[in-house]
Fold V-type proton ATPase subunit G.
Amino acid sequence: METSRGQGGIQQLLAAEQEAQHIVNAARNAKMARLKQAKEEAEKEIAEHRAQAEEEFQRKVAESSGDSGANVKRLEQETEAKIHHLKHEAARISDDVVQMLLKHVTTVKN
């Protein structure tokens, strides 16, 4: 009678051990599934962030390219204005410069 009671206790312990092993395996599988899901979510967020950063970069490149064209046009206009101003000033004082040069060339000093 004691042997059958001991045998029943052993059977009960083995059944409890198997049940515990099933619980541990289920928890391990659930953990692995959650880790896989978290990794997929993180990869998705990274891809979204990368796409957003790339879009922002392309927008800034486009804006700076547009500004570059505007800057080139502005610089060309400023250059033309300065050239026009210099030509006008040269024409205005050219007679005075010629007279001054003639005076210095033709004047003889002892």
Notes: The chain has a mean pLDDT of 89. The first helix runs from residue 2 to 106. Helices lie at 2-106.
